[in-house]
Amino acid sequence: MKKVLIINGPNLNLLGIREKNIYGTISYNELLKIISKKASELGLDVVFFQSNHEGEIIDRIHRAPEENMDGIIINPGAYTHYSYAIHDAIKAVSLPTIEVHISNIHAREEFRQKSVIAPACIGQISGFGIKSYIIALYAIKEILNLETTE
Description:
39% of the residues lie in helices and 19% in strands. The protein has helices at residues 20-23, 28-42, 54-63, 84-93, 131-149; strands at residues 2-8, 44-50, 71-75, 97-101, 123-126. Helix 2 packs parallel to helix 5 and helix 3 runs parallel beside helix 4 (84-93). It starts with a strand and ends with a helix. The mean pLDDT is 93.
């Protein structure tokens, strides 16, 4: 079974509370249950991590290979727009990584429209609400399956 690390950055622990018009009404714990259920159906083993601290996110990315993670799905939150350190950590571990966002960052304020994380990732999924995570699960599964058949 492929292991996928799902990282959520700052303020995502407040889902269901913060800016419901943008992020919806589902709580963070409900999101984890939804992701877990779909991952199980897809034959993926997911491990969750959430932090409001950049260094903790970087440390968690660094540990991913040691923990035999096969891929990463990351919602870097506001770090999306300025954390070259997270970008570099993703590049350093060389694991297939997908960036996800609940909202369509390209349709929001100008400062939110650029991701410095995306160039380190194999792709970005945004704008589908919490379904962005589900789409990412399908994508990472396909990518990991391709790697094992090549």
